[in-house]
Structures
1.
Amino acid sequence: MCQYRISQIQICVNVVKHIYVYVYLWIPMNHSSKLKLANLVKQLRGNQTQKEFAKRLGVTHGAIQSWENGEVTPGSGNLSKIASEGGYTLTELMDYLEGNSKDSQRDSNISVERLVAEVRYMPAKDLALLGRAVSDRLYAIAESVG
């Protein structure tokens, strides 16, 4: 019984993390986060040309250039690719960009409160997309649990 409750709590925590990532993507990145992302992309690219790195990630050369210049913020799919390339999960990448390291504990109440506030005022179209993402995630979790 106790182990079942722990599993439920872990599922809820994972769902909240995924919702947080989706909401975060609707909030514009601040200057500091854009600089961190630009530097990370440059670091991950290493000695490769922008075209070579773009091909490796499956994006255009212009996308790499605009990320490195801090002009454009990648969407969730491309952020996932960047995270994977750097050995991060998407949530860890978002934490890094916000200035939260793995070592420092995030106040989860503040994160959840921010998430709830964003959802309350989110446009219906965005809320529908978020709802679909949550639904898909819950379905995937249910399938994996059996």
2.
Amino acid sequence: MLLRVAEAALSEPSGTVRRVIYPVVGGEKTLKALAAEAAANEARYKARVRTVLRSSYSAHWRRMLSPLLRALELKCNNTAYRPVMDAIDLLQRYLDQPIKEGALFDPAESAPLEGVVPEQWRASVVDDKGRVERIPYELCVLVALRDALRRREIWVVGANRWRTPEDDLPADFEDNRDVHYAALGQPQDAGELPRCLAGLPALRRRSGARRRPGVAPGPRVQLCRAPLPPSGRLRGEGLGGPRRVMSISVIEGDQ
């Protein structure tokens, strides 16, 4: 079927779908049936993936949940990730309670869903009575925590890689903010930064065009290492080695 559609489209690329494609597939009704079948297959596949993940977590990975949450002290200053922190607090309160397949949280508990449980997981987590099942909810919370750690929105007290982002700032950042922003070549006005970033793709295209014959030269975008701050080191430099401070500069003309 796909081959016939591709051949028909290639044979008459300027034709309409109704005139070119419909005849080779048997009409509009056939296409609608194929689309419905594909959607159903995708839904079944996603449901199977959720079932496998849930089974693997409950049978093996879940045994690490209790020691993991007891060992880590998590912090967050971003209110947008408060639901994730509240969900972690909920899991910690239930660590000592035995669990079995189908175990639910107490109906009096307020289990955060928005920002924690993806829409495609809601049916697996919340039953038709609005009760939240513990095992799939725990899995969703851990995935949300992983994503928040990667974004540095939640951090681990005393950690190295997952430490507070404040440790990545120079020790004298607040006192010498102007100097550090100038060294990075970045504006201090938050409203200007999106405009600077929005212009980078056009600058890159123009920079590439200058290398092609017959095209007028334009500015080049250069990424280079900026000098260290006046303190001579970045805060937390001893943890994992020195950080590289980069700056972006635009070089006008054909240099």
